[in-house]
Amino acid sequence: xxxxxxxxxxxxxxxxxxxxxxxxxxxxxxxxxxxAVDPFSEDAVARLFAVKxxxxxxxxxxxxADLGQVKTQIGSLPPAAQRLAESYWPGPLTMLLARPxxxxxxxxxxxxxxxxxxxxxxxxxxxxxxxxxxxxATSANMSGEPPTDDPGVVARxxxxxxxxxxxxxxxxxGGPPSTIVDVLDDGTLHLIRPGAIDWEEICASAxx
Length: 208
Prior knowledge:
about 210 residues, alpha/beta, DHBP synthase, six-stranded mixed sheet, five-stranded mixed sheet, 7 helices, 11 strands, about 20% strand
């Protein structure tokens, strides 16, 4: 695995090229380190699951450069989701939206919903822009093991794996995971996982 400094534009281009080839790249986010692949490539998704030793029944969330990229790649948002995106993105809110047909069902565990967020991290968003599409951001750890904010741990765990590149941005902020909310077309919200943003606050924001 090649390890490069994430703040350099050349490193972002190298990571984008690796992802375009179907490779797996470890990246910093606003919480922990994640593994990025092209979510529209069935081969890349299969490689991601193999690298993590993860069951194909477990869904993987996506990250995007901005709200515009979400709309282009995933589809238009229900009004409640639009309000939440304007309130909390970039930030630790993952919304479950209708999965477009071009996203492999393997990525969502066969579900018709896919999780997506815009992270509050310049490098993660820059990579999404460089690739021209949303990316996976499942935690950079072996399945069943704890996630990490330390690029040294990522380098050690995946040293002999198919992870092609590590964008080393130093330690990430860590903290609580993103709050995951299912947002239906009629505005109904379902809390899937508590996280960094309070549920009552989310409900209030969705009604504004």
